[in-house]
Amino acid sequence: MLQRIASLTWRRSRLVLALALLAVIAMGALGAGAFGKLQPGGTDDPASASSRAAAVLDDTFGGEQNVVLLVRARSGTLDSPAAERQGKDLARRLGEEPGVTRVTSYWSTGGSSLASRDGTEALVLAHIGQNDTQVASAVSDAFTGERGVLSVRAGGAAMVNHDVTGQISTDLALAEAIAVPVTLLLLVLAFGNVLAALLPLAIGLIAIVGTFAELYVLGSVTDVSVFSINLTTALGLGLGIDYGLLLVSRFRERLGAGDEVPEALRTTVRTAGRTILFSAATVVAALGALLLFPQYFLRSFAYAGIGVVAIAALAALFVVPALLALLGHRVNRGRLPWADAVRRPEAPLWRRLAATAMRRPALTALPALAALLVAASPLLGASFGGPDERVLPESAQSRQVATALERDFDGSDASSVPVVTERPAGRDRVAAYAAELSRLDGVVRVHASTGGYAGGRSVQAPARAHAAMERDGVQRLTVTTDPAPASGAAQDLVREIRAVPGPGGGQPLVGGRDAELIDSKAAIGSRLPLAVGLVVVTTFVLLFLFTGSVVQPLRAIVLNALSLTASIGAMVWIFQEGHFSGLLGFTPMPMDTSMTVLLFCIVFGLSMDYEVFVTSRIKELHDAGADDRTAVTGGLSRTGRIVTMAAGLLAVSFFAFATGEVTFLQMFGLGSGLAILIDAVVVRGVLVPAAMRLLGRAAWYAPAPLKRLHARAGLREGSPEPEPETDPDRVPAGV
According to the UniProt record, where is the region Disordered (predicted)? Predict the structure, then answer.
């Protein structure tokens, strides 16, 4: 297949490029509307009890009040005639906004739960569609700021989603503004000329544009998270660089070895193309595991990741060879002054590093292993949670409102736990159930259709209770609690509430932020073993087909697991324990469960990407008859510069996200970038050669039946590639 691709791109290069250009234009036109199809949120399990509670509340009672307007009297008190008049008018106008329902205010109820302890702030509550960013924007624009004698700020779950989405758009623009020029500069330094440096960026551009089109189509038929855009940009740019570096460097190497352009192109596509195919397959296998999870937040990263990998691989196999066929020797034109300093394809530093590790494998590996284990050690104290308003900068209005609710209000209705019972029950049973809930430690009060309860006693008559607490036999209760939202105590209290039998028998449905967090973690935990098993088994099979050995896949999986745990341990040390919080501007909080799973899949896939890069060259030399030491040293010396440059450039793409202000995207960028560098430098540079030396000939072992299977089904690139000549006058500059 690869030979036919090489022949096609050589003979029909202009046709291939014309078709690619038309495809990019079409995908660009389609993908331009992708942002409008994507949704915020998506971290909840749609089959969970908390999601069922939310659905019943939406269908029966018009949903929970997820918009909070925090109102402060700029002069006088909240009960002054001017403040009361303007407060009631504010609530009336809010209720008239399209898409806004269930408006309640301090002035309409007189409830103390809607006023701060010092009496200077009051709440106006409302409901909008949780992912309706247009309505959220309209509410923010029309009702916040200084309004007569009142000062108004907007918060609540819907506004947090709105602020996160807006901040991500800002952060994405900043990340791209940093990553693209820095990447281009580093590519120019790597290749020694601008023309060669542009080829990897072409792959990245095609991959990003194509994936935007894919997300537009998928977003039209299913829920897709807006956060998938970030992975599309970072991974598209990064894989374009990876694949482009591999192709262009191999092509220039073969030209320098004396090959004519057609032969250099065939060799490049046959060898580097095979590596790219296996690399793409391993990354797809890792990201495909995200499809096992019920949260569309995680599935969306699989949609984006699989799409961007597939399109990047296609662009690398067709577009870049066609460009190289047209350019030929001109790919080396326009060298910059320092380019002639690089004389040969081997990297002396990597050769020395590999040789040292091969001479003293145990002595070299032990310090590296110790460093990785130390980096991984914070995982022992890891705690896991979900995203909330704390992922936003302190300047975000919705975060300021959440802070004020926790600091200044005694268990306001804005942070209550909704409970739904679907089985019909008499009023006496409803009253007894509400009283039982109010006895739980941490419960401030309970509102039900039968009245208000605290400490097991009725404290509010039904006439003073909130309206619409019972409809069509469905009972709705609001449990106002004392523990801080998202805390361990708050989650324990939700479990206690769930343990109290409902008034009509059976388990009631408990919703709200903490219930959603409990259910989300349970859903991820139940599917995580299957996801990990799928990634490991698929990776093992692919690497066996690639190498013909059962030891090489095991060695790769173990070493990649080490770099993965080290990088996630470092994220615990930074984001949970709070180191560098002042520098990066985030609030320490438990590790985001979904983002940790995402990091596992991305990092494992990209680690295998570099594993394939290195192993392919080692295997070439091994198959050509080189002894183990020569094959490993030669393979690393020829791929070391490519791997480190590719890893460095990909890390730049990810690190750019750490400049943003949304905490879980900072973790995504910093964690991915750090893991890539650990893998490229520590694992590939030290542990791989040391492990290969310790394993010796056993590294290539496979039982006889599997050897026969590999002979029939394993993928090969043809005859081993001859050793490239190293005449300094004939080897091009660059990578």
Answer: 713-735
- Does some domain include residue 432? yes
Residues 336 and 357 reside in one and the same domain: no
Residue 417's DSSP bridge partners are 479
- Residue type for position 52: R
For residue range 517-563, what is the model confidence (pLDDT) as tens digits? 999 999 999 999 999 999 999 999 988 988 889 999 999 999 999 99
State which of 465, 483, 516 marks the end of a domain.
516
What is d(CA 715, CA 165) in angstroms, rounded to the nearest whole number?
A: 44
* pTM of the predicted model as reported, rounded to 2 decimal places: 0.84
Considering only CA atoms, which of 397, 450, 444 is closest in space to residue 416? Answer: 444
C-beta separation of 372 from 678 below 8 A: yes
Spatial separation of the C-alpha atoms in residues 323 and 266, rounded to whole Å: 14
Encoded tokens for 223:
């829920």
Domain count across the chain: 4
**CATH number of the domain to which 287 belongs:** 1.20.1640.10
Which stretches of 2-130 are DSSP H helices?
2-11, 13-31, 34-37, 49-61, 81-96, 106-109
CA 447 to chain centre: 39
Looking at the DSSP bridge assignments, the partners of residue 73 are: 150
CB-based contact 299:218 (threshold 8 Å): no
SS3 content of the chain, % helix, strand, coil (to 5): 70, 10, 25
Does residue 77 sit within a domain? yes
Can you read off the two tokens belonging to residue 194? 């601008």
The phi, psi pair for 127, rounded to 5°, reads -125, 135
Q: Which domain holds residue 694?
A: 346-381+528-715
